C-alpha cells in the first residue's frame, strides 16, 4: 500500500478515514510520562476533579499525533518526504479517557517545490472528532510530498 504522489492530490478533496481509536488511561499516562509533561491535569485524578473538566484530560499533543496519523495509510504512506510545519492547531473540545476518535482530511492547496524537482508541497487540514461528532482538534499541516517516479527510475 502506498500513499498518493504529489500529482495525485486534488485541491478540495475530502477524506473520512476509516481508522478509529478509543483513548485509554494508559495512552494518556504513558505519553505524558514519556514526554516529561508533569501537568497534573493529565496525571492526577484528585487534582483534576477540582478543575472545570472534573476529570483528567488527554494530553493534547497525543491528540495531534493520533489524528495526524489517521491519514497515513491512504494518503501519505511512503510518499511523504517530511512535515514542513503546522500553520494552526486548535482544540475546541477536550478528550477524555474512553473517548473514541476518528479523523478527516481535506486537501487545501498544493504547489510545485521551487527548490526540488522530485517533490511538491501540499497543505492538509486534519480534523479529529469524538464519538459524539464533536471536533476535538483542527490543524493545518504542510507536507513535502514525492512526485511520481519517472519511467525507468530505479526508485
The Cα radius of gyration reads: 18 Å
Strand order of the largest sheet: 1-3-4-5-2
Query: What is the share of helical residues?
Result: 10-25%
The count of helical stretches stands at: 5
Q: Could you say which structural class the secondary elements and strand pairing correspond to?
A: alpha+beta
Q: Tell me the overall shape.
A: elongated
Q: What oligomeric state is this?
A: single chain
Beta strand %: 35-45%
Q: Major sheet: size, sense and barrel closure?
A: 5 strands, antiparallel
Mean pLDDT: 95
Uncertain ranges:
none
Structure explained in plain terms:
This protein has 155 residues and is α+β, with helices and mostly antiparallel strands. The chain is 21% helix and 36% strand. It contains five helices and five strands, in the order βαααααββββ. The chain has a five-stranded antiparallel β-sheet, with helices on one face. It is elongated, with a radius of gyration of 18 Å. The mean pLDDT is 95. Residues 11-117 form the MaoC-like domain. This is MaoC family dehydratase.
Topology of helices and strands:
Blueprint: E1 14-22, H1 25-34, H2 40-43, H3 45-49, H4 60-67, H5 72-76, E2 80-90, E3 100-112, E4 119-129, E5 135-146
Antiparallel strand pairs: 1-3, 2-5, 3-4, 4-5
Give a quick set of tags describing it.
21% helix; 155 residues; MaoC-like_dom; elongated; alpha+beta; MaoC family dehydratase; 5 helices; HotDog_dom_sf
Short structural summary:
With 155 residues, the chain is an alpha+beta fold. It has helices at residues 25-34, 40-43, 45-49, 60-67, 72-76, and strands at residues 14-22, 80-90, 100-112, 119-129, 135-146. β3 and β4 (119-129) form a beta hairpin.
